Every structure is written in structure tokens, then in C-alpha cells.
Amino acid sequence: MSLHSGLTEEQNASIEEQRLQTQKTRRVSVEALEEVLFDPLPVLDHGFIRVVDYMGDDSAIVQAARVSYGRGTKHVSNDRGLISYLMRHRHTSPFEMCEIKLHVKLPIFVARQWIRHRTANVNEYSARYSVLSDDFYIPADDQLAAQADTNRQGRGAQLDGAEREIIAKAMRENGERAYAVYRSMLGEEKSQKPGLAREIARAVLPLNIYTEWYWKTDLHNLFQFIALRADPHAQYEIRAYAEILLEVVRRWTPLAAEAFEQYRMKSAEFSKSAIDVLRRMLDGENISQEDSGMSPREWRELMSALGRE
Amino acid sequence: MSLHSGLTEEQNASIEEQRLQTQKTRRVSVEALEEVLFDPLPVLDHGFIRVVDYMGDDSAIVQAARVSYGRGTKHVSNDRGLISYLMRHRHTSPFEMCEIKLHVKLPIFVARQWIRHRTANVNEYSARYSVLSDDFYIPADDQLAAQADTNRQGRGAQLDGAEREIIAKAMRENGERAYAVYRSMLGEEKSQKPGLAREIARAVLPLNIYTEWYWKTDLHNLFQFIALRADPHAQYEIRAYAEILLEVVRRWTPLAAEAFEQYRMKSAEFSKSAIDVLRRMLDGENISQEDSGMSPREWRELMSALGRE
Amino acid sequence: MSLHSGLTEEQNASIEEQRLQTQKTRRVSVEALEEVLFDPLPVLDHGFIRVVDYMGDDSAIVQAARVSYGRGTKHVSNDRGLISYLMRHRHTSPFEMCEIKLHVKLPIFVARQWIRHRTANVNEYSARYSVLSDDFYIPADDQLAAQADTNRQGRGAQLDGAEREIIAKAMRENGERAYAVYRSMLGEEKSQKPGLAREIARAVLPLNIYTEWYWKTDLHNLFQFIALRADPHAQYEIRAYAEILLEVVRRWTPLAAEAFEQYRMKSAEFSKSAIDVLRRMLDGENISQEDSGMSPREWRELMSALGRE
Amino acid sequence: MSLHSGLTEEQNASIEEQRLQTQKTRRVSVEALEEVLFDPLPVLDHGFIRVVDYMGDDSAIVQAARVSYGRGTKHVSNDRGLISYLMRHRHTSPFEMCEIKLHVKLPIFVARQWIRHRTANVNEYSARYSVLSDDFYIPADDQLAAQADTNRQGRGAQLDGAEREIIAKAMRENGERAYAVYRSMLGEEKSQKPGLAREIARAVLPLNIYTEWYWKTDLHNLFQFIALRADPHAQYEIRAYAEILLEVVRRWTPLAAEAFEQYRMKSAEFSKSAIDVLRRMLDGENISQEDSGMSPREWRELMSALGRE
Question: B271 and D269: CB-CB below 8 Å?
Fold first, then answer.
């Protein structure tokens, strides 16, 4: 582990101390995940994900599916087959038997998307109780992009260099200015005069300031999170976190991660109409959108899934 | 209904249209709640709560508790007794049989506290999809208060007049400045030059900007919300919403609201030690904190609940 | 409405009374659903589903997706397009804005599958508090089938006539005998001697005895229920309930029901490997299971989805 | 560990194997809980609870409450104070950061009460897939009690010896008879003739047959479970499980368990009226139920909480 630039010396020391402790346990343990335990995996400019605790591994999924008395695993090949079957048929409850706890540092506008995943446990750093530090998310150059033409929600082409500079500067100054207002409203700690209550003062801070939380969820819900948030339609910033989470899952439960990628992430769902079209195409029929019975948009989505654009 | 100052003419017209529609239904219906249906009940400087739909009434609680075939109600006095019993003994599931849907306008820092209540359904106005308008929450004079001395989370004494003026001005200007940055980054809609994507641009906006959402929950979870958020320890701004919600519940399910106030809002929970102390006091013993076995803090809380400070 | 054979006269009268009440409301109302409101829709030999209350309609989905001030609907064609888009892209939260409450009578072994759907509210008839009546589920002739050969979970060919008769008789007698034990343990109500507590006595009753509950959920979770439980892999008995629920949804939110059938019920999810195979087939390649890279089981599932068995 | 009488040799061997494995881990580990890990803790006549996995300890609660970078704990005395504060003020989210997974064997009528706790993960032994074994719960002598006079839900005085014998015999025979019907409907495994599908056959089995599941929940929800199910109003059979769970928690998170007993299990909630009465009593007033403004039932509950009956 190298020091994380966004952390204080004291924080890095606390992390290091946790990394050095070793316990004996009768519980199942995952070496590849232990390697990165407590380590701040960098995301965006000041963010991170730290895996702080976990419970279960691939064998726990198998054990729960079989309601067996011993460890789940018999042979890796059996386990792979069973896990793949469970994923394919959306038997989701065995995946709920694995649990993971993360410490995450993330911009507030990302936190607001993240929290929409309700089946999880959260403890957030309290800006009523403590003073926030001045870390603001400023998009990297390649993320300063224009509103997309076709997608009302997303971003399109990169802005030109001059514009990018202007915008990055504006965002930086906006953060600094707001932070100065925040600190001045809070008052000098040593001053005689009391400052404004923290719970009000923080309201002037912009949505790109970083916050932190402990977040805990089970593997099934983590997959749901990754499926939605690593998707190209998701906003880039939360996607950056989802991609790290996918790497974490690959370390933690490699068989489940493999099945997830095969049957969820890189799969496609075809509607009743799309299946009808497919059948006709396989029978040698030459079909255009007009005689497909599908809307132009759905037709485009289908052709794209089939790599026939 | 009078027009809500924060709404456009078109919005007020849409609301008026909904208020004028009348349907026939076989469902139970609550006149006192119908009176305010769709009406924006003002909260804070630009916020509101609108009851948009509801399902069930006091009789639905009774019906579910009895799993009866007809309407729940037999006699109001029986119903009151049963509902009071259910509330007292925390039989919560019958209260889950009533559902309410609200349209709420609220500052983002309030929304971030609100969303922590997970057993609810939410659809929020999307700042990826649309441009936010420039409504910012500026605390009223009596809410510009200093950090509390004793309570690390709350606010204490009101600031003096000069300071209040300075702070209100700083908050207003902070909002205006951030909003100007936001609009300029978005670019002119009619300009040739594409602006920054909305999903990034919104990150410069401060946490006191208003957002809106549809929020739906059941009566049990609404009571949980009110119990936590109308509590003196809750931040004033969310308390303002919780108090309106309590008024809504009084209209909607008056018997349940009465039981809730009697057994939850104005009740107190006494620990094992506190009960021991009480028993000794009732036996005529004269007890001080020192010989109570309780910590100074708990002793204070107990004396305060007993009105003996 | 005709009388439901499984109900007492008093129960039928209570239902009739509810059906005759009419209220005025400003809420949205769905005529096609009001028609069957309170009516016991028969399922299996003694079961039923009664829609007891509901909230929202297709327009509520649109309204929530747009966070609009008025009624959601603009034009049916727009609404259909938007609802279909939401379903296709699994934007599930707007569907959560509709809520429905049912009164269901069902065998306990079905209830045990049903309750696994956690995002719902339940109040069940209490056999601690009251005495259960002697309704037992006995499968109809065409459901007395052998254990499936290929499917470790399901049923296969119908048993022959003699066997069916033996089994139906054995199930009937088993129920009668257990019920006699139950009643005798409870004791004569008018006897001097106290009987066994109901909460223990009920433990002798078999899993095919009927119970009842009020069950309430939102439209998204109802779709999840139907997708899983109307599936051919689900046990016949719960499928019978899921099919009635699909008919209820068609009355309640016809546009959402249409999208659900198109994109969820009659859709198929193709894995990464399946899509690769499809692409090669569309390019004219002749592929067998052996060179598909898929397991025999997955290959069979794919061919079946494509109607190429 | 001694062998559990209800388990097969093979099952006991699987458990023994798990108990012998030791892993190294950087995660927090709880020695007192590791001692009983995998061990079937007996409940009722054939049931058990086995702790199969866990995550977190008292320090994890502290860590989450502080959103700290290192291990939560500073000094045990600080931790005790903080945990007690969190429990007293119902700040429940830090307790959600600890997770536990159990393997439970329990009668189906108990499972039906247990499953009502929705915030948990479950995988149950499938009687569609496998054949159930013939373990039936028969209450011990001291649990064969009459219906309570005052409590419509509970049990009262023990039945007399002759009756107890008759009832225990009737329950045993009822189980044996139903199990014989079950096996005969399933057919001989080696016979030419196919038997009835397992998913139907199991419907003849009574509610006191044992089932098994893996059940996983967080500490907050486990406390909710214990608070409701170790309560004297809960049915004896589920109480027996709740009491073992309390012992498990005492091993796992002793500080949280201590706070839970002090502020939840042995606490009492006093209504607004009850507090008014208390204040008057402490002022020396002599109050009877008649002039208390409370119902006889509530008055009785209050006097009982105060030990003044």
C-alpha cells in the first residue's frame, strides 16, 4: 500500500495499523481480498473505496443454496455450475449470504445517487457534528463534456480546450469561495464570539464537496448496484466507483463475479417482439425496421445488441 | 386554496385542475384530507408539502388487525380502544395498511436527511435531465443561531442582529454567485456553442438549493419519520416538514394520530435503572444522582422527563 | 358478483355492503378495477383474491417519472411510450408509486412461498387468537402428477386414475383426521375443562389448510411477484394466484401491464455467450452445441427461447 | 462440542471439520463467539441454532458512529458510554454494521412467525427438491397448558397429568400418521411406479414438523427480533430461540448486549398520561385508577411496571 494523497498522516497511520493486525478465525477467509483490506483504492480526484470488512465467499453461496451442514464447496467445477445456474435463473437469495462493508469518500452529488440503493446500511460523516474539509471534485479534462444531443441525461463530446480551462477554473473558484463563506460563518474557534451552528453553515457548500461514509450491503444488492451504476447510461462519476467495486468482487467471489458478467453485465434482454424478429431472421427472412413491428428506438437497440449496425 | 408564491402560474393551474376533478369510488375516503388534497402546504421560505394521493383510513387499521371481510369499523369507541392497544404494544403491521403519497419541495440538505428513511418510494426531479431553478433556502432571522454549547449537533442562542444580517446576506450572495456560474457553464440555450452537460454543471450548486420529489410511504413508517424528525434533537428545517406531516396525519387518521401522540411522541422510555430509581422514590426515598447508579447525563434526562429540574 | 361458495352468509353480506358504498373523491380512480373491488375472485378449490383498496393508475407512473405538478397523463400515446421506455430500461421507481391491497385466502404451503416477497405489508389471520376453519386444499385431478424426471423441483406426468383417487382420498382423510385432533385438543367451548391453548393446538394441522391475510404492495413489487410466480418453474398452486393477479393488473394499469408482458414476462435474457452464438448464426454460420461454447443445458434453453427445438 | 442428538453422523462430521479449520485474517475477530462457532446450540426437542459466520464486533459500532479511519475502539470505557448513548437515543444505524449468519432448525409454525422479520436474508431447505425427515416438535410437559383466561393469545395454567399424556400422544400419533401418508404418496424410490411430486406430497405434513434455514441479519434487526420474541407475550416456542440468540449476542458484542438489556429489554415506555400520573404521585398525591384518567388495563400495566401491585 502506498499512502493515499488525500489522507492525513494520522489517517494513514490508523489504516496501516489495521493492515498489520492478524487474527485467527474459524470463519471462511479470502486471501485475494485480504490483500487489499483497509487499503484506500483511489477513485476520482480525492475519493476512495476501502474494504473494511466482509463475510462469506463463493462457498457461502453454495452452502446456502444447498442448506448444507458443512462448508458449501465440494469441487470448484460443481460450484461454478451451481453459481452460474443460480445467476441465470435469478435465484438471488444465496447471493445475499455474503456481506461486505466499505468506507467510501465521494462527492455529495454522487452520494445522492448512491443512497437511492435502499437495501444497504449507511453511517455518514456528520456535518452537524464536525467541520467538513475542503476537498472538492473537479472533473478531469476528458470529463468536461457537452450536454449530449441524443441523450437528455448524459454527456456528449468533449469541450474544447479553452472552454475546459474556463470551466475547471470556475468550479475551483466556486468551491474556494463557498468554503471561505462556510469557515467565516463558523467563526474562529478561539474567538469570544460564537459562530453560526454547523448544521446551517454547511448549507452553503456545493454538491461537489466530498463526504464519507461506511456502507454495508450484501453481494446480491452489490451486483444490482454495479449492474445499474457501471452501465454506460450511469453518470461517469458514479461509474468510476462501480468499476472499482467490480474489481473488488472479482477478488472476493470470483465465481459469482464471472457468472455476473456472463449473465447480467454483458447479457441483453430481448422483448417478445425482438424474439419474434430474431426467429424470422434465423429463418432467413430479410427484415427492416418498418416490417419489424418495433419502434425505431427499439429496433436500434436490438441491432446494436446484435452488432449489426 | 390560495396560490403558492413559489409556483408558476402554469403549476398553480395544474394543481387547480386536479382539485376540481371529482371521481366516484367504492374505496374508503377521508373528507378532512380531501379538503387539502393537492394543495401546497407551505414549509420554510420556498418549500411545500402536497398530499397527492392516499389509501385507507382509521378503519383500514382495524380491518387489517381483525382480518375482517367488511369495513373495519364497528363503533368508534371500539376502534379507538383497538388502535390505542396496537400502538401501545407496538403491533405495527396494521398501520402499514394505510399509504400516502406526497409531492415535496425541500432544500437538498434536508432531502439528504429525509432519504435516510429507507422504507419509502421516491422519484426526484432530475438535474441530469432538467435545469434547476434558483430557489435557495435562507434561514429566517430566528433560526440564525450559534452552535450549541452543550449539544455538539444542534444550535443554541440566536445570533445578534448585525451578525444575522451579515450571514443572511452571505448566504444569499453565495446562492446567486453559484447559480450564475451554473447558468454560464450550461451556456445559452440558443447559442451555437454547446454548454457543459447538466449532470456536471449542477455540482457547483450549494446544498441549500431546493429540489422536489414524489415520496410515498405507509402510516407506520410515516409515524417513525415524525417521531424522529419532529423531535427537538432533529434539525429545525426537517422538523418544519415533520410538523406539517403530523397535521396531515391528524386529518387523515385521527384515531391513529391521537394514539401516536399519547404513546410515542409525548411518551418517555425509562431504562431498567430509571425504573429502579422511580420505585425507590415512590417508596419515599430521597435520592440524589450520586446514589442513583445513573450517569449525570441519564439522571438529567430522567429528572427532565419527570419535570423535576 | 355471485356469492363465493367458501364464504359464510355473514361474510358475503359484509362484502356486498362494501360493494354498495360510493364515495366522492378527488383522487384518480380506475373504473375497470372498481368493477371487481371487494369481489372474491376464486382461486384453487377454496381460495380467493379480493382487491380491497388501491392507489394510483397509469397516469401516476407518468406523473412520478416527470415529477409533474398536475395529473401525469398528457396523451395516451405519449404515456404508452414513456411507460414502455421505463419498463424496458428497468427504471422501476415510478412503478412503485401505485399501491394495491388484497385480501387473500390461500393454503399455508402457498403462503410460505408468498411471504418470501419481503417488500410488502401483511396482516395474517391469527391461529393464536382464533380457531381455524376446516378448509383444506385438495389438488384437482389434473394436478395429481408424478415427480418430474428432469426437473428436481417440479411435477411431471399426471398419475393414473386409480392412483389419483387413492391420493386425493388420503389427503382428504389426513385433513379430516388432523382437524378432529385439533378440535378435540381445544376442548368443548362449553365444557368445564379448559382445552389446550390454541397456539399449540394448531401445530397438528397440515400445510394444506387455508389461511387468510391482508397483503399490500406496490406495482413494481407486484410485477416482480408475477414474473417469478406466474413462471412455469413456479409451483402450480401459487401460479394460480399469480395469474389472477396479472388479470387484476390488466384492469388497474393497462399500459404498465402491456409493457410488463412485452418486456418482462414474454422476454428472454441472453447471456454474453448466447449473443455471440446468435451473431454467428445470423452471419449464416451453422452451429451445434459442441462448437457453441455453451453447456448442453444452456444450449437447450437458448434453442427453446428461439423456438428451434 | 458434543454431538447433537438430532444430527446424523455425517452432519456431525461436517460440523466438526468446520470447527477445526483455522484461517488468518486481518478482520476483527471475537474469541468468545469463535468458541461456539458452527456448534449446534440445542433449542426445544429437535431444534438448534448454529452461528455459521459473523462480521464486526463492539468496535465496529463505534467505528461507524465516528466514521473513523482506524479501528473504532479507543478505551473500553469510552466505547461503553458511546454505545449506551446510541442505544438510549435509538441511533440504530451503527448497530446495523455488525452482521451474523445462523443455521437454524425449527418447527414450521415457529418459522412462520420468524419470517415476519423482513429485514433479513433467508435460504430454506426445499421440500420441493428434497424429502423432509420425520422430526416433529412435541411440547415438553410443562408447556402443555390451557388457553389463557385473560390473554386471548397465550397459554395459561398447565393441564393436568392425564390430559397432558393424552395430548402428547395425540400429537405424536398425528405426526407419525401424516408422515406415513407422505412417504406412501411419494412412492418407493426403487419402484417402477412414479410417486406423487414432492411439492404436493409435503402439503399433508403438520405445522410442527421441523424445517431448516440459513438466516442472516444485522445486529440492529437481531435486537428487534429479540425484543419482540423474548417478550413474555411471544409464544413460548419462538421465545426459546430468542433466548439463545440473546446469549449469542452477549458473546459477540457484550457492550451492545448490555446496553440493549438496560435500555430496551428491561425498560418500560410510559405514555403521556402515565407520566402525568407519575409526576402527581411523586408530588405526594394519592391516586387511584379512577382519578388517573387511564383505562383499567393501562393502569394495571403501569402499576405492574412500577412493581406496585
Answer: no
